């Protein structure tokens, strides 16, 4: 019996793999165009994660994950590549590639349903990202329920999901943009600069929504209890958000202050290719990490491993990523 059962499993596995092949080939083609390589052999569906912080209902939503080769060309670009590889190895991670998640956040307050960042959008769907709306619906929320969309910054993986077929993805929402970020990306000079592709996306996805937007400066109140804070460096107007519930409990949304749960935290000084002002981004990283470690605050980081909710422990000049496990969950 045992032998035939094994045989049965082996046969179905092969048949199943055969059925999946056309889909995988498509995904690989699109991702290869972006210079990324899709790894085979894993299927996962992280979906959404919801918890209460006092009176606030907080949901993290997976827009998908993406693999990139050559971590040393993204993190620690001012270091010897061997040093970057050694740190990855020490942390039991592959040295040849890394995987990042994309995690928009939804917060339900008394009167608002606020979405922070919007994922990569429809253009990335074939490559396995752009899943925000699907996950939003799975969590019981329709796009038209969202009352306010706030952006940490205007990189494509945060603004790509604002539009769907050239129409606003969240038709009833108002918007909140960083004033400095908006002014930088909508400056006509940007369309003739190394950032021209991203500036073109801002012109297409963000600018048409400006008449429904409020513009945030450092320390602006988004809604009562949620404050925008300047965290410049990754982009010129990058914002993070301090979220305080009615019982005084606080959570930080750190956007792209840190982009990798090991490399950004353990070596906050290292220069990162994605950071537009590398020195300022490193200073901001250390300041924000120091604050959340000292105050023992939970944080949600856009590119952290799903559900992207964690704490930070200070260890000399380095920081350790401590995933939230049951501190905030009522089980
Ligand atoms: Zn990002």
From TrEMBL:
Name of the featured protein: MBL fold metallo-hydrolase
Please name the PANTHER family in this protein's record.
QUORUM-QUENCHING LACTONASE YTNP-RELATED (PTHR42978:SF6), QUORUM-QUENCHING LACTONASE YTNP-RELATED-RELATED (PTHR42978)
All copies of the Metallo-beta-lactamase domain together span 101-303
Q: Which Gene3D superfamilies match?
A: Ribonuclease Z/Hydroxyacylglutathione hydrolase-like
Annotated Pfam families: Lactamase_B (PF00753)
Classification from the root reads: Bacteria, Pseudomonadati, Pseudomonadota, Alphaproteobacteria, Hyphomicrobiales
Q: Which family does it belong to?
A: Belongs to the metallo-beta-lactamase superfamily.
What keyword terms does UniProt attach to this protein? Hydrolase, Metal-binding, Zinc
* Source species: Daeguia caeni
């Amino acid at each position: 019996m045992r032998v035939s059962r094994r045989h049965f499993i082996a046969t179905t596995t092969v048949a199943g793999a055969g059925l999946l092949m056309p889909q995988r080939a498509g995904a690989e083609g699109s991702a290869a165009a972006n210079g990324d390589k899709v790894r085979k052999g894993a299927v996962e569906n992280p979906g959404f994660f919801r918890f209460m912080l006092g009176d606030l209902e907080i949901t993290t939503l997976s827009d998908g994950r993406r693999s990139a080769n050559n971590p040393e060309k993204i993190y620690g670009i001012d270091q010897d590549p061997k040093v970057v590889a050694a740190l990855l190895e020490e942390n039991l991670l592959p040295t040849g590639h890394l995987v990042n998640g994309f995690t928009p956040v939804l917060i339900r307050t008394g009167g608002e349903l606020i979405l922070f960042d919007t994922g990569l959008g429809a253009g990335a769907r074939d490559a396995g990202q752009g899943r925000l709306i699907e996950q939003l619906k799975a969590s019981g929320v329709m796009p038209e329920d969202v009352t306010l969309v706030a952006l940490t910054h205007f990189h494509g993986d945060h603004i790509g999901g604002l539009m769907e077929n050239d129409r606003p993805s969240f038709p009833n929402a108002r918007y909140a943009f960083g004033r400095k970020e908006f002014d930088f990306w909508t400056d006509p000079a940007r369309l003739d600069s190394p950032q021209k592709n991203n500036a073109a996306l801002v012109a297409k996805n963000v600018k048409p929504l400006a008449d429904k937007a409020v513009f945030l400066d450092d320390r602006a109140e988004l809604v009562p209890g949620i404050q925008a804070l300047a965290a410049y460096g990754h982009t010129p107007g990058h914002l993070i958000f301090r979220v305080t519930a009615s019982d005084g409990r606080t959570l930080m949304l750190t956007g792209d202050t840190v982009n990798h749960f090991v490399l950004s935290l353990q070596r906050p000084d290292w220069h990162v290719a994605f950071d537009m002002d590398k020195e300022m981004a490193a200073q901001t990283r250390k300041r924000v990490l120091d604050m959340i470690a000292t105050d023992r605050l939970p944080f949600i980081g856009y590119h952290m491993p799903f559900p992207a909710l964690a704490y930070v422990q200070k260890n000399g000049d380095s920081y350790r990523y401590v995933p939230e496990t049951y501190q905030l969950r009522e089980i």
